[in-house]
Design brief:
single chain, alpha/beta, serine acetyltransferase, domain 1, 2 domains, five-stranded parallel beta sheet, 16 strands
């Protein structure tokens, strides 16, 4: 047994040298996934006081509760942001004062939390008004995966905007694993956003979503292709995901790819595959294997031609 373990040890150590691209040795201390997840859990407690706590929370406890929780989150988040900056400093960071930058980013993030709560209230309202089965705001906050996913994404987006590496993606991938809803922290999402059912929803990094948008399970807002540079490397940072204007509804299983725009007030039907922009107040639907569109309230329609091929 000892000889077998020795051989396994030797082979593993040899693999560390051979496949070094999946090691992190002798580098900066990376943010802790476990610590970031715990911070995300506590941020949800701040977004929805009394919903994520084991014991009842009374209004006369609110100041003490909030003070303790904010202080705890601030201390831990600042530490994880400092680690992130050591791994990849932001463009305008002073490399000689990463601790100071971490403190300033944390303070700015905390200052934005009341604004996030204001938007989340509109999301809860959108869910209540958009789902006939919803019986109360309490049910929506406690039981609807879409609300939890968008809450975490809105929080992660604050850090993404400040060019903090790793932490925003850890947050959104944690909630992705929990809810089945995959929203990149870079996506820009307006108020009154409702994801009904939610499982299998994918929203890419450069997607922009307006106000009063409703999407159903299995919807993908993805990329059509990945341009490459002269050396064959994928070009990053370009706009590659859809723009969804205000008051749009996208039904289950629809796939919209590329830097296209879905005009205000449009409806995208279930299982539609769409690679081009859609004018305002348009209904897009699938019929006999073809994607068609027509202006809402009319019978005039046309077939949309496209080819398959996608990325996220």
């Amino acid at each position: 047994m000892t000889k077998k373990l020795t051989r396994i040890l030797d082979e593993l150590v040899d693999s560390f040298h051979k496949y070094g691209g999946i090691n992190h040795l002798d580098g900066a201390n990376l943010p802790s996934r476990e610590a970031v997840v715990e911070i995300a859990r506590d941020l949800l407690r701040l977004m929805f006081p009394g919903f994520y706590d084991k014991d009842p929370l009374h209004s006369n406890q609110l100041i003490e509760y909030t003070n303790e929780l904010v202080a705890s989150v601030a201390r831990r988040l600042e530490n994880e942001i400092h680690r992130s900056l050591e791994y990849r400093p932001c463009d305008d960071c002073d490399p000689n004062d990463l601790a100071g930058t971490a403190a300033r980013v944390t303070q700015g993030f905390l200052n934005d939390l009341p604004g996030v709560r204001a938007i989340l209230q509109t999301d809860v309202t959108a869910a209540y008004e958009g789902d006939p089965a919803a019986i109360s705001n309490e049910e929506i906050i406690l039981a609807y995966p879409g609300i939890e996913a968008i809450a975490v994404q809105r929080l992660a987006h604050l850090l993404y905007r400040r060019h903090i590496a790793l932490i925003p993606r850890i947050m959104t991938e944690w909630i992705h694993n929990k809810t089945g809803i995959d929203i990149h922290p870079g996506a820009e999402i307006g108020p009154h956003f409702f994801i009904d059912h939610g499982t299998g929803v994918v929203i890419g990094e450069t997607a922009v979503i307006g106000k009063h948008v409703k999407i159903y399970q299995g919807v993908t807002l993805g990329a059509k292709h990945f341009p490459k540079d002269a050396k064959g490397r994928v070009v990053k940072g370009n706009k590659r995901h859809p723009n969804i204007d205000d008051d749009v509804t996208i039904y289950a299983g629809a796939t919209i790819l590329g830097d296209v725009t879905i005009g205000k007030g449009s409806i995208i039907g279930g299982n539609v595959w769409l690679l081009e922009s859609v004018p305002p107040n348009t209904v897009v639907y699938s019929e006999a294997g073809q994607t068609r569109m027509k202006t809402a309230g009319t019978d005039r329609d046309k077939m949309i031609g496209h080819s398959h091929g996608a990325g996220i």
